[in-house]
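User:
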Amino acid sequence: MTFYERDFMEGTRGTMAVDWEERIDTKRMREERKERALERMRDAGLSSMLLLSDPNIRYVTGLAMTGGSGADHYSLLLEDGSVVHWDTADHASNQRFNCPWLTDIRYACPGLGNVPRASGSPSARKFLLDTMAEGVASALSDYGLEKEPMGIDVGNAGLLDALERQGIDTRTEECAAVMEDARKVKTKDEIECLRMVAAIAEAGFQQVVENARPGRRESEVWGDVTRELWRHGAFVGGGYLTSGPNTWPKHQANTTDRMIRPGDLVYADMYNIGYLGYRSCYYRTFSMGEPTEAQQDAYELARDNLYDVLERIEPGATTDDVAQGFPDMEGEHADWYDADEHWQMTTNHWAHGLGLQLYEVPLIWRGISEDHPIELEEGMVMAVETQEPAERQGVRVEEMVVVRENGVEILSQWPVEEITAIDY
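Assistant: Predicted structure:
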């Protein structure tokens, strides 16, 4: 197996800004992302795109959108590279001060989501939606694009109707394809953000080693992990820790108040941890004391399955071939789940793209890839994950990787050859 070897000094550096070495260049990252979106927008025959999806807004504007009550923020990307951004009063005034690369920031009218729902008034909902559409039409007119086709990344029927009443030629499928194509291959700075979030996740794994003890609750240990992640500047948008019988199948409540006991497996899932918006998905399994033979055997099988997939990943490979590295229905333990089809085994064995959200292109999964393959490209970043039951418990292992011309680069560096045993 050939893996990508990093160049001298290539790799995770500090999280702070310094003047004595090049780190993540956020200005370059913003500009390169917007240019990729612009190039593909023009190729698709669009003169503008209205973006309501938080990851798409961040990709084009650099604004740290973390969800909200609905359409209380949205952005319009125009063919000359200008951006009109709408946001709530406090956010908009803050952005005018802190974001000099955005020169046209207006107050949003939330025509979708919780605000119109909470109004309890059909006429209020219509007012908000129409006002939002009027604001978009006004911006298009300001830039002379009111008669040109506009992409939109959220196909809400009510909003589309309101925009069409303003005479706007809206295109949803084209916009979705533009943003998917722009975001699927990562720039140098995006990859470094993902390498950084993997390093931060490893700081969290170290907290598991130092703080997991018999008698401590899952929630207490996860609290230690969360504090460490925040200390390194991460956004903790997900993740959890489970133990013992909660490790297989996945516990519906994720982290609970269960006490960890001797002989337990402990599973830490660092998913949706963000650094500059870029999200992790990174599993490791720990054992309380030396693992049993059954736990070791299960771990080795899960690890070998994962690395069988990694051996297949390269530019030009198709996802149907790569998916063959994942277990068949017997290996999926389909009988235990009483399942008949791979699509019923969602999230158990698959690979998924990583970026400004948890699931991006590509998705490699026996549930779809065999009949609907796509081609892998250099610069795609993904998480590859496998699992295996071990008696009444289970192990999981996952790597974050980059598709490279001369072999997969593994961003995750926590030891993977064996279960990490916690000596208490």
